UniProtKB/TrEMBL annotation:
<protein>
    <submittedName>
        <fullName>Sugar phosphate isomerase/epimerase</fullName>
    </submittedName>
</protein>
<dbReference type="InterPro" id="IPR036237">
    <property type="entry name" value="Xyl_isomerase-like_sf"/>
</dbReference>
<dbReference type="GO" id="GO:0016853">
    <property type="term" value="F:isomerase activity"/>
</dbReference>
<dbReference type="InterPro" id="IPR050312">
    <property type="entry name" value="IolE/XylAMocC-like"/>
</dbReference>
<dbReference type="InterPro" id="IPR013022">
    <property type="entry name" value="Xyl_isomerase-like_TIM-brl"/>
</dbReference>
<keyword id="KW-0413">Isomerase</keyword>
<feature type="domain" description="Xylose isomerase-like TIM barrel">
    <location>
        <begin position="29"/>
        <end position="323"/>
    </location>
</feature>
<dbReference type="Pfam" id="PF01261">
    <property type="entry name" value="AP_endonuc_2"/>
</dbReference>
Length: 352
């Protein structure tokens, strides 16, 4: 078994126009001061990284790595959540997601160019990850079918199969590029994405021909909000889990609202994200299962809370993760009672 690495922190929710949150150097030093050992870098913010340049220039990639290392930190992974979302967007969501694209690619006339840009971004991410010495990458799958998630009106026969076939076709060139660069592409299973639970992931995996790089980012908070068994999920998919977001959540259904939330704001929804330790996730069990299955990646805090200040969430998050990481043992607890290995003794015990 291996010891999980950490604590790490996903920087996306902490970026700001004010120092120290507006430069990679400043934000990594801030994170290090709280006890974090690694940073997961969002690639859509040029203040953090120029993704294209990191893909094309080893010198630049080394500079980025040097900035992080100068703060006593490591890069855990890169993230293309926003670009990945744009690989597949149903027309109903075009305007809502347009803000994820560069200004020159927004608008209904640019949808095809926007998709091509997103695909290229993911290909850059594969090469940039390799140049940075990383072997896993975080993203979203995007969605063509999400508006049909509830089967009313009734779905036409074959609609789901056609949707996943198209989704796989869009991602296969990216997955192949990841494979060429030795990187696992880890989809964050998330509402709003066609990959939003285990079954939808299995459909996508089958449509890709079980591509070996189509892996998972495990975040138990999204399963709490869907009333799924987030521990059994690890039992089922542990071989594909290559990344881990440590994020808490709670689900308190009432006689008035449940999983769908009634269009309420986050503070009023029955299911809502919380700062670490304030929700319902059994992280002792989560860390135990991941350790049991030999997960050796990073435990990365993702902060999303509708109440607590982000800086307080980060300050509390580092020791929370550190205290949950299990340093694996190098010997069995009952070694003191061992009698040694002896084939003749074994045969005598068996009466042979």
């Amino acid at each position: 078994m291996k010891t999980i690495k950490g604590p790490g922190i996903f920087l996306a929710q902490f970026l700001d126009d004010k120092a120290p949150f507006n430069t990679l150097e400043g934000i990594t030093k801030w994170a290090a001061s709280l006890g974090f050992k690694g940073v997961q870098i969002p690639t859509w913010d040029p203040r953090m990284i120029d993704l294209k340049k990191a893909a094309e220039s080893q010198t630049y990639a080394d500079e980025i790595k040097g900035i992080v290392q100068s703060a006593g930190m490591e890069i855990t992974e890169l993230s293309t959540h926003l670009q990945g979302q744009l690989v597949a967007v149903h027309p109903a969501y075009n305007e809502l997601f347009d803000g994820f694209a560069p200004a020159e690619l927004r608008g209904s006339a640019n949808v095809k160019a926007r998709t091509e840009w997103a695909v290229q971004q993911l290909k850059y991410a594969a090469k940039a990850s390799r140049n940075l010495g990383l072997n896993a990458h975080a993203t979203f799958s995007g969605a063509l079918l999400w508006q049909t998630v509830y089967p009313w009106p009734q779905r036409p026969a074959g609609l789901v199969e056609t949707g996943f076939k198209e989704l796989a076709n869009r991602w296969l060139p990216i997955l192949n590029e990841m494979d060429a660069n030795g990187v696992d592409l880890c989809y964050e299973i998330h509402p709003g994405e066609d990959l939003h639970d285990g079954i939808s992931y299995e459909r996508f995996l089958a449509a890709t021909g079980n591509h070996n790089r189509a892996c998972l980012l495990y975040d138990p908070s999204h399963f709490v909000l869907q009333a799924m068994d987030y521990l059994e999920y690890i039992d089922i998919y542990h071989e594909k889990i290559k990344m881990f977001h440590v994020k808490d959540a709670e689900f308190n259904p009432t006689g008035r609202s449940g999983v769908y939330g009634g269009y309420q704001s986050w503070i009023d929804r029955p299911g809502r994200f919380r700062s670490l330790g304030d929700g319902q996730v059994d992280f002792k069990a989560v860390f135990s299962k991941l350790t049991q299955y030999d997960f050796s990646g990073w435990a990365v805090m993702e902060w999303e809370c509708c109440m607590k200040h982000p800086e307080d969430g980060a300050r509390e998050g580092a020791p929370f993760i550190k205290d949950h990481i299990i340093r694996v043992t190098e010997k069995a607890f009952d070694d003191f009672a061992g009698t040694g290995a002896d084939e003749n003794l074994n045969r005598r015990i068996l009466g042979l």
